[in-house]
TrEMBL record:
Organism ancestry: Eukaryota, Metazoa, Ecdysozoa, Arthropoda, Hexapoda
UniProtKB keywords: Disulfide bond, Signal
PANTHER family: APOLIPOPROTEIN D
Family recorded in the similarity comment: Belongs to the calycin superfamily. Lipocalin family.
Protein name: Lipocalin/cytosolic fatty-acid binding domain-containing protein
InterPro entries (UniProt xref): Calycin, Invtbrt_color, Lipocalin_ApoD, Lipocln_cytosolic_FA-bd_dom
Length: 178
């Protein structure tokens, strides 16, 4: 059963364009004193860490509180549903989350908030370790669909943490209906 779960998670990650890297997941610092309630609401994906195509137009991530200490995450692309999940903190650092994605079979994946000011930008990171490699995904999120200043603040986090930006792909947020 474990083997099937690993295969499913790897297929899920690769199908959504994550980057395969042949080394360990880095231990990155996350947002200190992360406030989940301030983070709730709509976030536009401005750049995504991707090795493929797809999901590159009008991406919107919506975070909604639940009454059980977790929150729901819905990701859409040009108004179409992509994936949903329920996130909850793991461990002592509230910005280190795990998301149970509902994609036919539950897939539990990390979702870390590296930095946010809650009002304009956020940087999220995911890294899944396998015996031979890691699958990495990253997002630069902004509250305003086309804020260049917020985008630059998010991108600066990658530079500050020495994260390779060569896989970052810009998401087209023009003429969107969602």
């Amino acid at each position: 059963m474990y083997t099937y779960s690993v295969i499913f998670v790897l297929c899920f990650y690769v199908s959504y364009g994550q980057v395969l890297v042949f080394n360990q997941c880095p231990d990155l610092p996350v947002q200190r004193n992360f406030d989940v309630e301030k983070f709730m609401g709509n976030w536009y994906e401005r750049n995504v860490y991707t090795a493929g195509s797809g999901g590159d137009r009008c991406n919107l991530d919506t975070f909604r509180s639940t009454d059980c200490g977790s929150f729901n995450l819905n990701m859409t692309d040009a108004g179409d549903w992509l994936v949903s999940g329920r996130a909850r903190p793991i461990g002592a650092e509230a910005a280190k989350l795990v998301v149970d994605y509902f994609v036919g079979a539950n897939a539990e994946l990390p979702y870390w908030i590296l930095e946010t000011d809650y009002n304009s930008y956020a940087v999220a990171w995911s890294c899944l370790q396998s015996p031979a490699a890691t699958l990495r995904y990253a997002w630069v999120l902004t509250r305003n669909r086309n804020s260049e200043e917020a985008l630059q603040r998010g991108l600066s986090v990658f530079e500050k943490l020495s994260i390779d930006t060569s896989y970052l792909k810009e998401v087209d947020q023009n003429n969107c209906s969602n």
